[in-house]
């Protein structure tokens, strides 16, 4: 049995929805389908979810929101009309949006989640109704009826493990089942969304719940590229990648598959395949638990993410002072800052975190370090990018680090930091933001040319 999830661009128009249902109906094993809200129809378009967020902002700022609401309704009415669907769904969408606004406007986080969920919620109903009208028995199931019960943390839902029992019952449904992605219900019966891009998470939860043989994640590319295609022209597609590799690459910017979506799948080793709705016969990329190492392709992928800051601290004889690092980390923890890397030397330490973590707190944190830690020197480096070179095979093949650092040296790129975890599955380099693209190009050339 397969669970198949279709992303926003796959369900953005009637034509795309027809493609989706052709894929779904051509395989009996595709029984449970998760759908996103209508995504972008072209590069300048706005996703339905973003329109819904704009609607929320209008309501909150007490502005006239009717035009924005009409824009949202128009997205759905275009789809309904083009599908030739006989339905009163459009009126229901309008009524639901008004209902949420009326009842939740004094509770902003709840209103935001309720409005945001509407994109997937109504798309799922439209798609189920159309497939039924085409003669394929199909039911729409709300996340509540599907058993997706989550923590009550607006915009950051986590599945409750007690949900899986009920979700497993979805296996017994004979019809095709369409479930909206991106949200669940709290135990107190509130709509709570996952983080952005969270339909992938719904798909993973359902795949785990029904113990699917395969979780198919359909998008608008034929798999995961070895490097960002806006930097490298037509990069190779990865055929197979492990969960661990995927996690490392998505950490540093590979956005095709939500990193939180791997968690439910990991324990049960449910494989994922990333496929293209527009080219469903392309093999796609498999994300699996274990794979054979390809010695010609030791590096699986290269990613680079910008927006990091490094706090660099020097203290003579730091290595002999007990509790020095603990003091610094406590300051960060007290200020609710989580850090990502901590490369160190005998008398120095750098703490790297996403710059957004420091917003509004940087000066306070630096002052606390200065006054509490008796340091010799402190400086802060903004505009840091993190380059990740990832591959399970790196531990078995000698010379990969040499290959990468030579490529970077030849391109004149200054390595501010190097870090390799004990698992040897990835190498991390701290570089200047302005050299990010050049670094990816240099590594790519060297690894795959
Ligand atoms: N529609 C939501 C978003 O744009 C969730 C998703 O598509 O996965 O973030």
From TrEMBL:
<protein>
    <recommendedName>
        <fullName>Aspartokinase</fullName>
        <ecNumber>2.7.2.4</ecNumber>
    </recommendedName>
</protein>
<keyword id="KW-0547">Nucleotide-binding</keyword>
<comment type="pathway">
    <text>Amino-acid biosynthesis; L-lysine biosynthesis via DAP pathway; (S)-tetrahydrodipicolinate from L-aspartate: step 1/4.</text>
</comment>
<comment type="function">
    <text>Catalyzes the phosphorylation of the beta-carboxyl group of aspartic acid with ATP to yield 4-phospho-L-aspartate, which is involved in the branched biosynthetic pathway leading to the biosynthesis of amino acids threonine, isoleucine and methionine.</text>
</comment>
<dbReference type="InterPro" id="IPR036393">
    <property type="entry name" value="AceGlu_kinase-like_sf"/>
</dbReference>
<dbReference type="InterPro" id="IPR001341">
    <property type="entry name" value="Asp_kinase"/>
</dbReference>
<dbReference type="InterPro" id="IPR045865">
    <property type="entry name" value="ACT-like_dom_sf"/>
</dbReference>
<feature type="domain" description="ACT">
    <location>
        <begin position="389"/>
        <end position="449"/>
    </location>
</feature>
<dbReference type="GO" id="GO:0004072">
    <property type="term" value="F:aspartate kinase activity"/>
</dbReference>
<dbReference type="InterPro" id="IPR001048">
    <property type="entry name" value="Asp/Glu/Uridylate_kinase"/>
</dbReference>
<dbReference type="Pfam" id="PF22468">
    <property type="entry name" value="ACT_9"/>
</dbReference>
<dbReference type="InterPro" id="IPR035804">
    <property type="entry name" value="AKIII_YclM_N"/>
</dbReference>
<dbReference type="InterPro" id="IPR018042">
    <property type="entry name" value="Aspartate_kinase_CS"/>
</dbReference>
<comment type="pathway">
    <text>Amino-acid biosynthesis; L-threonine biosynthesis; L-threonine from L-aspartate: step 1/5.</text>
</comment>
<keyword id="KW-0418">Kinase</keyword>
<dbReference type="Pfam" id="PF00696">
    <property type="entry name" value="AA_kinase"/>
</dbReference>
<dbReference type="InterPro" id="IPR005260">
    <property type="entry name" value="Asp_kin_monofn"/>
</dbReference>
<keyword id="KW-0028">Amino-acid biosynthesis</keyword>
<comment type="similarity">
    <text>Belongs to the aspartokinase family.</text>
</comment>
<keyword id="KW-0457">Lysine biosynthesis</keyword>
<keyword id="KW-0220">Diaminopimelate biosynthesis</keyword>
<dbReference type="InterPro" id="IPR002912">
    <property type="entry name" value="ACT_dom"/>
</dbReference>
<dbReference type="InterPro" id="IPR054352">
    <property type="entry name" value="ACT_Aspartokinase"/>
</dbReference>
<keyword id="KW-0067">ATP-binding</keyword>
<keyword id="KW-0808">Transferase</keyword>
